Amino acid sequence: MTAPAPLRKALRPDDVEVFAETIGHFFERITGEKALVRTAYLLEAGMPLPLDDFNGLIQVQGDYQGSVCFAAPRGLLDHVLMRMGQHEYSDADHLDVVGEIANTLAGRARRVFGEGLEITPPQTFTRAGKPPPSAASSPPLVIPFTWQSYTAVLIVHLDALV
Amino acid sequence: MNPQPHTWLGKYRELLAAIALFLVLDLGVLIFNTYTSHLIERDTAHINTAGELRVYSQQLTKALLTLRMEMQSGDSYQTSQAQLSESYSAFSTALQHLQGLTLGSSGPGASMDPQSRELLDQLVETWEPINTGVLPVLNAATPSAWDVDDAVNRAVTRNVRLMQLADDLTRHLEAQAVSRAASLRYIQLGAIFLASLNFFFIVFKFIRRLLESDRQIEAARQETREILDTVREGLFLLDRDGHLGIQQSRSLPELFGRPVAPGLKFDELIAQLLEPEQQEAARDYIDLLFNRKVKPALLEELNPLREVTLAAGQDGRRKGPTHLSFEFTQVLEQGEVRALLVTVFDISRQMQLARDLAGAEARASSEVESLLAVLDQDPAQVRDFLKSGEDRLGMVNQALQDVQPEARAYAELINFAFRAIHSIKGEAGALGLLEVSRQAHQFEDLLTPLRRRQDLTGDDLIPIAFQVGELRQKLAQIGEVLAKVRRYQEAPVSQHPFVELKKQIEHLALKVAEDLNKKVRVEVNFPQQAPNLDERLLRHLHEMLPQLVRNAVAHGIESEAERLQAGKLPEGTVRVEFATTTEGSLSVSVRDDGRGISCARIRARLLELGHPHELVESMSERELIATLFTPGFSLQEEANEHAGRGVGLDLIRDMASRAGARIRLSTLPNAYTQFTLQFQPAS
């Protein structure tokens, strides 16, 4: 006989909207222009994660488990760096930006979901890098954002455990 | 905390002592000044009196000379006589006054120094002959010329001396007065200096104390502020008039979703948050809290604001928490409730979790029923429904992925999704899949208001993606149930009642042998023709056989080394035989080729356990073997997972008794042990 599976409840839309708002406000704060949610969809089984040139990811344990990842193209991050007053756009700078966004997501997650949540420091990687495996089993929710002509993606892959 | 009325006295004791000293010094200076003024006044009077003596002596001598001249010239001398009398009287009075200083301790003379006293004595001595000479002149109405001459001679010869002495006394008294005034001035200055020092001490102490108090107050204020700024709970004081205090935690406006000004009426605060009945209950409760006579434990029970659901705003939404919990603590002062410390907790999350849990439990129960309902349907139809439902949801998810960021495209997507979900709902309803139908209905509830909106944005699609996932999950659950049913239907069913039992016995024997580090082979033989057994008998077998097999491996079969030493194969054998008779009786034997049962060993064990030696020695073999079936007896000294607790054979005997079976035991030391269960046919 196998051990009973923990009672699992789906992540609520409110929980995810918190992350979406965080991304929107981050862009508004840094660039003066809000990043807008284009849509939201479930990643079909077997499909690869829609990662981009630069990716910042946090892993979560506790009442919720899984990961939250922000992926953005180089061009978008160039603009962000420019608005931040930087003149050099190295890969390290781009990774810093996605890391900063992931860090903001972590802070927001801690505030919303409570101190019981264990969140890893942000991990950043380029397109060539490999994301760590997620502990969540439900399908990832993908939220594409538009900022000017660019598209960035927030991937929320979390299970909520009661 | 109990008030300590004398604490302030202790705190300001030094200050009070200094002030008291200051007052004492001031009073001392005042008294001293008064006394000094008196002394100066007295000294002045003495100096004047001493100076007058000189004048009166001169006047007296002059009057005597005038009297003698007028008597010699035969003129009237009454005037001279009167002047003489006046001078004499004034001199005598002045002299007596000065002399009086030396007589009584209360008089001024008490303070006269020796030198002054000596000068005064000389003065009196010089005056005395004059006094003796003048008195007959004054006492006679017509003084004789001899008396007058005698008086004149005495006065003239002593007048200069008398005036000199009066001058000396005057100067001496003046010098003494000056010296005393100087001393008094020094003392006065000293006292003023001390009083000033004391004053500065008071000022310094007072200011330092004030600064220290200010610092402590500021530190306390800062600490309180930090606590109030940091604490997540809402904290404030509520006075008897129902006003909020000045000190409040920063989280308060966030918790109430509105600004909370100090001094605000609590009634006003809750008016926008609670329903009228709750407001009334809260007011009554707060009145009760200010009543000292009501027990605090009872008050906690009565708190109507322990779990408060906050009323939504006009737009049906609420900013901030949805549920709050209020905790009231009485602030006592001298036994009276002065105020209430109100702690406000945001329990939205807990309430949400509780609701989710309750909902999950209800859903789980409902889901079981719903899933079981699938079994009533045609599997092919259900499979078709699941396929089409999954396809539709896939298309909705694809549409979500491909949608362009335009309000019109969003609106088309919503309509498309609505049609797809409605179809799923209808089909699910027709198939009696209530859980799917309910989930689809919930999805429709989400989509319906969105269909009416013209200002859709990408944010509105996030809950839709969630609902796609939820509905997919419901379909997947039904799919899993169907798959399990299919597997169950396809699984081969054992026709023989002993097949399953055989598997269990083999598994158990090998497991026990492995745990005890023994080698064992299990042989289970049963007739190919399945006997006609009732379920009760089969259940008894399922209970008893594992016990006998466990015993055979644990007690009967020796360890590998022991078997080799005894000349046996290292691997022991446990054989289980089922035999039936034509009458319908069943016999089951469990035989092991182990060490057998040694009566000598049972006897030794009984002695080890403290049974009386005579009794044990007198026991027959049959009686010794019977002890194996007594509760708590085991040949094994230490218990392990499989043996040693003395319950195995005892349990089998009970089971056999309940099953109406007989037990037979045959054994040969170092050869075998066999238990046989004989079941009678069912009547």
Please characterize this protein's 3D structure.
- Chain A has a single domain, classed as CheC-like (Chemotaxis protein chec, 3-Layer(aba) Sandwich), CATH 3.40.1550.
- In chain A, 32% of the residues lie in helices and 30% in strands.
- Chain A has helices at 13-31, 74-83, 91-113, and strands at 8-9, 36-37, 41-42, 54-61, 64-72, 118-119, 123-126, 141-147, 150-161.
- In chain B, the strands form two sheets. In chain B, strands 2-1-5-4-3 form a five-stranded antiparallel sheet. Chain B has a five-stranded mixed sheet with strand order 6-7-8-10-9, covered by helices on one side.
- Chain B is elongated.
- Classes of the chains: A alpha+beta (162), B alpha+beta (683).
- The A-B interface holds A 7, 9-13, 16-17, 20, 36-42, 44, 114, 138-139, 141-144, 146, 162 and B 349, 353, 356-357, 360, 364, 394, 397-398, 400-401, 403, 405, 457-459, 461-466, 468-470, 472-473.
Primary descriptors:
heterodimer; A: 162 residues; alpha+beta; Chemotaxis protein chec; 9 strands; B: 683 residues; Four Helix Bundle (Hemerythrin (Met), subunit A); five-stranded antiparallel beta sheet; 21 helices; elongated; disordered N terminus
